[in-house]
Design a protein that fits this description.
This protein is α+β, with helices and mostly antiparallel strands. The chain contains eight helices and nine strands. Strands 8-1-9 form a three-stranded mixed sheet. A two-stranded antiparallel sheet has the order 2-3. The termini are far apart.
Length: about 260
C-alpha cells in the first residue's frame, strides 16, 4: 500500500525552509474554492457489517475482514485517562513543543471531564479520533488525505494534506489538530510536519506489527483492543455482554471506539 509507505518519510521534506504551504497547495485550494465556493458534506448513514476474520500476516494487504476497535471502561480508569495521554505523547512525540501559543497544542488524545448536572457526579475519560465507519473527515477532504483503511483505521496522509482544515470543522469530536509551527524530534514511524492536520491513528504502526496501541498498554485493565468483526474476540464478547456507548451516537457514525460508564 504505497500511501502507507510514503507516510514513513519526513513530512517537511516537500516544504520550503520557512515551512509555509507550497505553491501547489495554494493553487489547488484556489481551484477548489473557485469551483464549489463551499465545502460539501456527504450524507451520513449508519451501518454495521460483521464478518469472520483472522489475523493478518505481515506480508498481506489490509482487508475489511478485520475492523479494529477500542472499548474503554471509564470506571476502571483510576486516573481518568492521564496514563493514556502520556503514553500517546511518548509514542508519537507530541506535547513537548515550545509553542508561541499554547492553544495550538496537539490533541491526539485528551482527557475530558463530564459532570452530571443533577448529581454533580464527574466522569473522566480519554477522547481521541473515534475511527468512524462513516467518517465526516473523510467525506469533506478535497484531496483524499483524510482516509479510512479497509480495517477501519482513520488516517491522514500528510504528504497530500493541504492544510485546509475542513476535516477539523467536520469532526464532531474535536479530535484533530493543525500543526502551526516547525517541529523537531520526529518519530520515523509517526511523521509530523508544519502546515498539516494530525490525529490519533490508533498506533497503526504497532497494530500492523501485531501489537496493541500505546494507550491500551498504558491502561490494560480499562481498555480492550480487538477485532469488532470477530464475534469471538474479547472486545466483541464484552460489547455483547455489557454493551458499549458511542459518543454522539445520534450522528450514526458507527464509531470504532466505544465506552462503558458514561
Amino acid at each position: 500500500m504505497s500511501d502507507r509507505n510514503h507516510m514513513h518519510q519526513n513530512v517537511d521534506q516537500n516544504r520550503g525552509d520557512d515551512g509555509n504551504i507550497n505553491a501547489y497547495r495554494r493553487q489547488f485550494m484556489a481551484s477548489v474554492v473557485g469551483i464549489s465556493g463551499v465545502a460539501t458534506v456527504a450524507t451520513i448513514a449508519p451501518g454495521i457489517i460483521l464478518q469472520q476474520a483472522q489475523a493478518k500476516p505481515a506480508d498481506e494487504m489490509v482487508t475489511n475482514k478485520v475492523r479494529w476497535g477500542l472499548l474503554i471502561d471509564t470506571s476502571r480508569l483510576t486516573d481518568g485517562g492521564d496514563a493514556c495521554v502520556e503514553a500517546c505523547k511518548k509514542e508519537h512525540g507530541w506535547g513537548n513543543e515550545k509553542l508561541s501559543n499554547k492553544e495550538q497544542d496537539a490533541q491526539w488524545i485528551r482527557k475530558v471531564k463530564v459532570t452530571e448536572k443533577m448529581t454533580g457526579h464527574v466522569t473522566s475519560l480519554p477522547v481521541m479520533c473515534q475511527h468512524c465507519d462513516t467518517a465526516p473527515c473523510v467525506d469533506v477532504c478535497p484531496t483524499g488525505a483524510s482516509m479510512k483503511r479497509a480495517d477501519g483505521i482513520v488516517l491522514v496522509n500528510k504528504h497530500i494534506c493541504i492544510g485546509c482544515r475542513y476535516c477539523m470543522m467536520a469532526c464532531p469530536y474535536k479530535a484533530r489538530s493543525f500543526v502551526h509551527e516547525t517541529l523537531t524530534d520526529q518519530r520515523p514511524y509517526s511523521p509530523r510536519g508544519r502546515g498539516v492536520v494530525e490525529s490519533c491513528n490508533m498506533c497503526v504502526h504497532r497494530v500492523d506489527a501485531g501489537k496493541k496501541p500505546a494507550c491500551v498498554e498504558a491502561a490494560p485493565e480499562a481498555i480492550l483492543f480487538g477485532d469488532l468483526n470477530d464475534k469471538e474476540s474479547d472486545i466483541s464478547k464484552a460489547l455483547k455482554e455489557f454493551g458499549g456507548t458511542q459518543i454522539r451516537a445520534d450522528l450514526g457514525l458507527n464509531t470504532g471506539v466505544r465506552y462503558r460508564g458514561i
